[in-house]
């Protein structure tokens, strides 16, 4: 299939057995916020499938997939009152939430097993036009893996947000 309808397929993920240390970190995310854990898994599945559709090497696909699993790991350090807040965040809460990229980077750098995957955590909110964060990088300066994860992250967020806010008959037809 050439469309995006199958980007959530997890068939490729079977071959990427996560190290116990990485699985432990993901389980910590689950204990704080089930949505974040499911989102990380979905972003990893989408990232893996995008890499396959882009005909990237198996090694780079595996690397990107693990980076995607870990992209929101910094949310471990975001207060649950902000992370799980229903509705819109205030400007101050949004500023706190944006710190998850830097916090995830610091966690990855401190842990030898997570260190190779820091790019997903740190750069996944950078934008090609330089309006992203944490550094405001432009396309040529954003690691390719982070660009792929950004697409997967945005896609998953849009699909899940729209599914929350649409009627049941419309959701069923999707």
Explain this structure to me?
It contains 9 helices and no strands. It has helices spanning 20-32, 34-53, 58-69, 80-83, 91-98, 100-110, 118-123, 144-164, 168-173. By secondary structure, it is an all-alpha fold. It is globular and about 40 Å long.
Summarize the amount of helix as a percent range. 55-70%
Radius of gyration: 16 Å
First and last CA, distance? 17 Å
Total count of helical runs of at least 4 residues: 9
Order of helices and strands: HHHHHHHHH
Topology, pairings included?
Elements: H1 20-32, H2 34-53, H3 58-69, H4 80-83, H5 91-98, H6 100-110, H7 118-123, H8 144-164, H9 168-173
Helix pairs in contact: 1-2, 2-3, 2-8, 3-8
Q: Concise description?
A:
By secondary structure, this protein is an all-alpha fold. The protein is built from 9 helices and no strands. Helix content is 58%, strand content 0%.
Main features:
174 residues, globular, 9 helices, mainly alpha, disordered C terminus, 0% strand
């Amino acid at each position: 299939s050439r469309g995006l309808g199958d980007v959530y397929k997890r068939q490729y993920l079977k071959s990427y057995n996560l190290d116990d240390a990485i699985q432990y970190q993901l389980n910590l995310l689950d204990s704080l916020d089930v949505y974040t854990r499911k989102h990380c898994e979905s972003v990893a599945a989408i990232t893996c499938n995008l890499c396959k559709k882009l005909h990237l090497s198996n090694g780079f696909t595996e690397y990107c997939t693990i980076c995607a699993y870990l992209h929101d790991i910094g949310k471990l350090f975001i207060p649950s009152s902000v992370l799980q807040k229903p509705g819109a965040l205030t400007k101050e809460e949004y500023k706190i939430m944006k710190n998850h990229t830097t916090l995830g980077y610091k966690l990855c750098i401190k842990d030898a097993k997570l260190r190779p995957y820091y790019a997903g955590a740190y750069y996944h909110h950078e934008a090609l036009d330089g309006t992203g964060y944490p550094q405001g990088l432009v396309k040529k300066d954003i690691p390719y893996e982070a660009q792929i994860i950004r697409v997967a992250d945005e896609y998953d967020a849009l699909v899940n947000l729209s599914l929350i806010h649409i009627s049941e008959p419309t959701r069923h037809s999707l």
